[in-house]
Amino acid sequence: MENEKKKIALSLIQPSGTITLGNYLGAIRNWVTMQEEFNCIFALADLHTITVRQEPAKMRKNILDAYASILACGIDVEKSLFFIQSHVSSHAELAWLLNCYTQFGELSRMTQFKDKSAKHADNINAGLFTYPSLMAADILLYQADCVPVGADQLQHLELTRDIANRFNGLYGNVFKVPEAYIPKNGARVMSLQDPTRKMSKSDENANGCVHLLDPPEVIMKKFKRAITDSEACVRYAEGKDGINNLMDIYGAVTGLTHEQIEKDFEGKGYGDFKVAVGEAVVETLRPIKAEYEKLIADKAYLEECYRKSDDIAQKISQRTLTKAKKKIGFVL
Ligand code: ATP
Ligand code: LTN
To answer: What pLDDT, on a 0 to 100 scale, did the predictor assign at position 5?
Structure first.
């Protein structure tokens, strides 16, 4: 946070499973490059993950694995904050306040709530419903200018802006109204087994999802089994979701355009192409996995990193929280 004049970019990711190739190509890789242009604030949204039931030992492992993996991707705690949401008490506290400025009707319209409550019909808890007020708190506490997110989160961001405007309308300028930031080169990675659905950490079909920490042979196997079509021609076209997805992934890791890929694979079959994509992904992930192995073996270093960021985040966020409480009418 060395340069006060830079704009503030903020984003969180749920440690709800091991980080995927989709998370990396769609989000984290862009976070890494944004560190130069912005004052960046990143965190693991562990409070958000308990909106879906978690197994305690697995949750602890997922949090540390996600922390080490994201550092391994290139997040630098000398340049950016990278903390753990539950360690900074102002998030839960502001979320409660904002719940009282968020309407039932607004929350009812959120498509993520509708999707997740259909998926977890046995546990439609109040946290799942009020998830967006906690996300609004994450963002508004830091007076963030922009929030890099995938398209799936735009509705939550719009609600954050509505909440901020409503609060500011009542009490004056307390919160900065943030903008969504959709990175130019943010790839949308689809499941290798169902290319009409996005690749997701919590996918039940393990073959559809490539994890950052998968061993090379597992990655190769998943690409070899990827669903394609019967045309046997590597070209980007409507109705060829599987091949389009593989071309997008290959392009994202090699920098090649669709036209270049089509030319390189002219006359070759899908078998060759799948191997090429698998190998390119393995090579992209190799240094990340190696760095992760080093980091995860050094728990003391990891703790040093997150404690340092936790403390700074607590200080910054307290300023906004105190201001909001004062405006509402609490005795401080
Ligand atoms: P979950 O399965 O728990 O819902 P997820 O893997 O879908 O998790 P999130 O934690 O919701 O991922 O998202 C973290 C970030 O990664 C977000 O910015 C999101 O837009 C991005 N992201 C997630 N999946 C993909 C994908 N398949 N392609 C591109 N970006 C993605
Ligand atoms: N809901 C987001 C994770 C998230 C987030 C945030 C993203 C929680 N708080 C604040 C940006 C800003 C997701 O599921 N990807």
So the answer is: 84
- With beta carbons less than 8 A apart as the criterion, state whether 103 and 32 touch: no
For the chain, the 3-state helix, strand and coil shares in percent, each to the nearest 5, are: 60, 10, 35
CB–CB of 252/188 below 8 Å? Answer: no
What tokens were used for 319?
Answer: 């300023």
Atom of ligand 2 nearest to the CA of 45: 8
Ligand 1 center to residue 27 CA distance, Å?
8
The pLDDT of residue 185? 65
pLDDT of residue 2: 53
Residues with a CB atom less than 6 Å from ligand 2:
10-14, 45, 48, 135, 138-139, 147, 149, 153, 156
Sort 130 into a burial class: Cβ within 10 Å, 0-12 / 13-18 / 19+: buried
119 is catalytic: no
- Amino acid identity of residue 65, one-letter, is D
Within 13 Å and on the Cβ side, how many CA atoms surround 288? 29
> Could you say which DSSP state residue 151 is in?
G
80, 72, 64: which is closest to 10 by C-alpha? 80
Specify the pLDDT at position 187. Answer: 74
β-bridge mates for residue 190, sequence order? 198
Catalytic residue among 6, 198, 222, 325: 198
Closest C-alpha residue for ligand 2 atom 2? 13
Helix axes of 216-224 and 270-296: crossing angle, nearest 10 degrees: 150
Given a contact cutoff of 8 angstroms between Cβ atoms, the answer to whether 62 and 26 are in contact is no
Ligand 1 centre to CA of 23 (Å) is 5
pLDDT in the model for residue 265: 96
H helices within 141-190, ranges in order? Answer: 154-171
Q: Give every residue of the chain whose pLDDT is below 70, as ranges.
A: 1-4, 185-186
Query: How many other β-carbons are positioned within 10 Å of the β-carbon of residue 57?
Result: 8
Separation CA 208–CA 200 (nearest Å)? 9
Give, for 241, the enclosing helix (H) or strand (E): helix 241-254
